[in-house]
């Protein structure tokens, strides 16, 4: 039980308790030892050429070490030269998206 007067002091002790926020697990580079390049990634197009969208796709990711992986995800932007930005939430990736050619991210159909 907190013996301090006032809510702020008690909250401070609660939120800094061991295991509440471990910077080794929650920092942006906490998984840097697992990072891999995606070999079929395209350079980021200029922002003014990008257009927002929301399309379910099956992305084909070619990881530098792990090899080919197919993943159901979302394309949330497109750009000329038939590029789409797909969401990739994975500890092997240091960003949350990757630009792929549309042939590597076809639309998902409703059938399974």
Set down the secondary structure blueprint:
Blueprint: H1 7-15, H2 23-26, E1 51-63, E2 67-79, E3 83-87, E4 97-101
Antiparallel strand pairs: 1-2, 2-3, 3-4
Describe this structure in words.
With 112 residues, the protein is mostly beta strands. The chain has a domain at 34-104. 12% of the residues lie in helices and 32% in strands. It is built from 2 helices and 4 strands. It has helices at residues 7-15, 23-26, and strands at 51-63, 67-79, 83-87, 97-101. It has a 4-stranded antiparallel sheet, with no helix packed on it. Strand 1 and strand 2 (67-79) form a beta hairpin. The longest helix has 9 residues, at 7-15. The N and C termini lie far apart (54 Å). Mean pLDDT is 81; it is low at 1-17.
Gyration radius (Cα, Å) is 20 Å
Largest sheet: 4 strands, antiparallel
Indicate the overall shape: globular
Instruction: Please trace the helix and strand order, writing H or E for each element.
Output: HHEEEE
Question: How far apart, in Å, are the first and last alpha carbons?
Answer: 54 Å
Helical stretch count? 2
Mean pLDDT: 81
| Percent helix range | 10-25%
The count of DSSP E runs of length 2 or more, i.e. the number of strands, is 4
Instruction: Give the low-pLDDT segments.
Output: 1-17
Strand content is: 25-35%
Output the structural class. mainly beta
Main-sheet strand order equals 1-2-3-4
Brief summary:
12% of the residues lie in helices and 32% in strands. It is mostly beta strands.
Output the keywords.
disordered N terminus; globular; mainly beta; 112 residues; 4-stranded antiparallel β-sheet
